[in-house]
Amino acid sequence: MATKKTMTLNLTDAEMGVLEDLCEKKDLSKTAVLRQALRLYQAIETRVEKGAKLFFENEETKEKAEVMML
Amino acid sequence: MSIETSPVFLLDVSSGQPIDAELLDGIAEQQLVHWEDEWMPVLRDAVERMKAAGIERTKWPQSRHWDWRQKAQGFDRALANPGFCVTCQGMTQGMMFLDLLHKARIKSQTGKELVYIEYLENAPWNRRHIAGDEARFAGVGSLLVRAAIELSREEGFKGRIGLHSLPQSNAWYANTCGMTDLGADPDYPHQLRYFEMTPEQAEAFLAKGNTP
Asked: Which of B65, B81, B139, B150 has the most CB atoms in a 10 Å sphere around its CB?
């Protein structure tokens, strides 16, 4: 498997709280959550750069809200 | 991108002996050249032979339209879509692309992360329904499924994997891999059947060792 590099990450209490909540909800380590977030961010960026739009759709009302990517 | 190589072995079908092979955590230009220059002519010949023999279309190699070069370009540098391949005697024997952004569907694992096998293909000369008794190496598919499970574990996904299977491979995923068949997926092209492996099934598959 690919060699990994180590880095120090500085998070606020609020950010750390969110990360810990996600770890518990997903049953993943902090590293695993952040690696997954990076994959997702890159995948979305790639699609948006190609002209795609990102929407959330309410399954019941079918109402759509576009997510604006910076 | 650096590709790491791990020593593995396949079974040489003619001698019944294990043979040294390599598992690579990437798909490089060399693999795509092998696919174009070596796999495709064998696949095309197989299709022509089956057509001439009047064999019905559903029995032709169902991955014959897969374009690995196009897939590799589409997944270039995508963190969510790592590729793996198996080489032996200087030739690519199997390739696989994964997707790490899928969720489990099986009831006991619903919503949990898994490694989804987007594409997995064995070289045509290793497939019995193409090469018959002259199939060269056995164990390629098992090695690639094992690599997907190992990655799933490494990522903290506990060995969970999932995939949509071409009809010709349904029995192999169900019986050899021991995956759960969740039935035809109405939302997937051609309504292919969806299979999933739980952490317990992954453990059982790994415990079997590299049996074809």
From this structure: B139
* pLDDT tens-digit map of B67-117: 999 999 999 999 999 999 999 999 999 999 999 999 999 999 999 999 999
Q: What is the pTM of this model?
A: 0.93
| Interface predicted TM-score of the whole assembly (ipTM), two decimals | 0.87
The single residue listed with the structure tokens 């180590």 is A6
Q: Flag if B154 and A27 touch (Cβ within 8 Å).
A: no
The CATH code of the domain that includes B158 is 3.40.630.30
Q: Spell out which chain A residues touch chain B, with contact meaning CB-CB distance below 8 angstroms.
A: 1-3, 26-29, 31-32, 35-36, 38-40, 42-43, 46
Numbered residues of chain B with Cβ closer than 8 Å to any chain A Cβ: 2, 4, 25, 78-80, 100-101, 112-113, 150-151, 154-158
Contacts with B7 (C-beta within 8 Å, 6 or more apart), sequence order: B20, B21, B22, B23
For residue B167, how many C-alpha atoms fall within 13 Å in the half-sphere facing its CB? 10
Q: Does residue B188 contact residue B102 with C-beta atoms inside 8 Å?
A: no
Q: What is the number of structural domains in chain B?
A: 1
pLDDT digits (tens, 9 = 90+) for B174-200: 999 999 999 999 999 999 999 999 999
Which domain does B105 fall in, by range? 5-208
Question: How far is it, in rounded angstroms, from Cα B141 to Cα B199?
Answer: 19
Cβ B80–A26 below 8 Å, yes or no?
Answer: no
